[in-house]
Write a structure and sequence with these properties.
The protein contains 1 helix and 10 strands, in the order αββββββββββ. It has a single domain, classed as Porin.
Amino acid sequence: MILNKMISKYTSLLILALLSVTSYAQKEPRVARSTIAPPIKVGVVTSNLLDLYEGTTQQFNGFEDIDLYGSKGEYTKFDMAYGVLVEIPLNDKGGLDIELNTGKMTSQKENQYLKTELSMLNLYYRRYLTKSQNSNKLYARLYCQLGLGFTLYKAERYFVKDNGLFSMTDGICHNNSASLGCMFNLSEKFQVSLSTGTILNYSDGFDGYDNKKVGDLMLKSGLGIHFSL
């Protein structure tokens, strides 16, 4: 009899405690998932650089300057750049991406070819075009991004016939870029991105010969590996 009374007493106390906790939990404000700031990401990126052909340019002396192309030619290579990145989310729909890349680029057209060494520091605004999902599951998000930055370059132009160096330029210029990409979420801490886009370098000397054009256009296609902090 005494045991039954004790069980009944402690059962009543347990029920009362559970009711109190439940009532407190219902009154406690909940933080919506959408208001939680996404984590900062750091990572590495490797990219293919391609000098785009923009046609010939008529010069004041009557001659035409040859614009080079990075896809065909004996002296062109599959040119690569390597870099590091930091992505700072502003909200779930977009953020700022800072990249530092360094690499080489080659191109050729008719009787000339080019070797360029370059480094680029860029700030991008990234806008995601699709919604985020559970960070523990595999999914993909499309995005577009616009950027601005600086390009440090050293370029040399050669004649194909005798490999003779006939023009050399170097300097620093600003650039603008636009690109499309896709971010693949593999886990809560690990993501992979694929992107491609154009970069306009505002110095015609970027291609080894300065004929006072607005600038020089290139294509950058990259693979990034991202780690959420």
